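Methods — Computational structure assignment.
A single polypeptide chain was analysed. Its primary sequence is given first, followed by the predicted tertiary structure written as structure tokens.
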Amino acid sequence: MEIQVLGPVVVRDAGGRPIAVGSRRRRELLGRLVAAAGRPVPLEVLVEDLWEDQPHTAAGTVRTFVAELRRALEPERAPRTRSQVIETVGTGYALRVPRERVDSHRFEDALRAARDGPSRIVAGALSDALTWWAGEPYADLGTSPWLTRERARLAELHRQAVELRARAVLDLGRGAPLVPELEAFATTHPWREQAWVLLSHALYQADRQVDALASLRDARARLLDRYGLESVDTLDHLERDILRHAPHLRPSPRDEDRLRLLTRTEATGTYTRLRSMSTVAGAAAITGGANLVLAQEQRAAAVAEAERTGNPDLTARVIAAYDVPTVWTRADDPARSEALVATTRRTLDRLGREAPPALRARLLATIGLEHRGTRDRWAAEAAAEAERLARELHDPNLLVLALNAQFVQSFQRPGRTGDRDAIARELVELSARHDLPTFEILGHLIGIQVCAARGDTEPAARHVAAAERLATIHETPLVHVLTAAFRAMQLAERSHEPAEVARAYHAVAGDLAGAGITGVEAGIVPLALLSLRIRHRRPAPGDPGLDWGPYRPWVQPLLDLAHGNVAAARRAAATLPMPAADHLYDALWAVTAHTAVLLGDESLGAQARDALSPLRGEIAGGTTAMLTFGPVDDILARLEPY
């Protein structure tokens, strides 16, 4: 049995099914016994706590409630036998449920155990413990004095856990993704000096030094003006450390603080060891951050070593053991991806047509997944062949992988949003039916992209909610990074306050910096900020610190124009490359269209018009589910003279 009070009072049996424990009074009695943490509560105290104006029958009513709770919580107990859950002690009662079976007790124990632990353990334990909160403690009960006291006590423990976990994450050098959370925490609890210290430190680790210093100064003003508190030493010390770039503010993750992926096993066989390396890498990859980078490196090492054995069957199975969904069409490490594709194609050739169909399909799907962002027909053909084999074999595990490859290859030609919609729907339905949660999440993420491209707000919200729910259950934090970026895009579409949207995108930048998805991270946020400026008829940002990543060639003409150098802008526009066949295809053509209009370049305008025409009715950049350049139809209207 489990008792939950960190939110509404809920009791569940061993199978996780809710147990009906009766009216609010009965739940309050149970909650009062929970708050006593195993200590007996005298009958007169229970009466006093449950009723402000005590009826003359109160004592008898409490005894009745106890009897009813016992029947609900111990349905198998024989009549007149001793209760093992609510014990009679003297004139009162005590709840006899193990502490680990009550979420508030389990939370207190986790917090107590974490206070003196190493940062890696503290960060993980408290990140987990904080997910147990489902709202205000005892949320469905009233406002009795004992409830007010207990809620206040638990709320303070929650605040301590948030701060302790944040300190541990910062000590590991991973504070950038915490910025939005700590901004909300500091705003909600402005009197807590430690909240402002943690927020400013996280801003610094997110490469936002100016914001970090501004946060500290704002904290001083708030504490003095609103609460009459003088500046505390921790604020002053952190400011000095930020100004001198103290090394301890940005520690490098230590080896023992990173996931130790499997490089050796107790098994003596080469096959078992290499396949295990690839399997464990796949399991680690979905957790994101440093683990994703390590996982990809380990997979590449395992595949390379397998090929050196000269055994194509072993190599094929090591390649196939990595079963991780792909939602983005730009490779994190193009050279590593191409090496893997080359190995996979050689392995297919060596196996020949005699290879087991399922294994052959997995290798073909790998080619389709890894050789992305191109217009190479053979990669699309590999994905299509993988899907055909998977359907013939009626293998759902294989089919979701093949559908993922088809999704990636659908970007070879613009205007295939409908195809991606069909893939998303089948992934969700198939994965839900066969319990394939990571691919069910993938289906919802693709669904978000489809809805973003079409401007369909309500179905997008349903996909976001489903993806986040599954991500929480199955511990896939990368999902929350992507949905946060989508929310920033939604804000950009409806807000008339550029500064507000810019703040949201800066928060996304912090999330991406710690997510380990470099193929998404580099240049995306500056491009989103550029889209904001274009839509508000402002010049490109001239900040030299912006990292445009692989998108700089398309932005360079606008940067030149922002500096008044028209000749340089024309030279840069004359050498623009063709955008890759990936998520950014229409976004980069939207940038090019803007350049053509500003320069009055008829040839460039005609190219942009032809490239964007298949996307009529959609949102330029929307398929990223991260940024928007507005309706394609509006851009085409501006290009009509060309």
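Note: Residues 173 and 180 are 16 Å apart (CA to CA).
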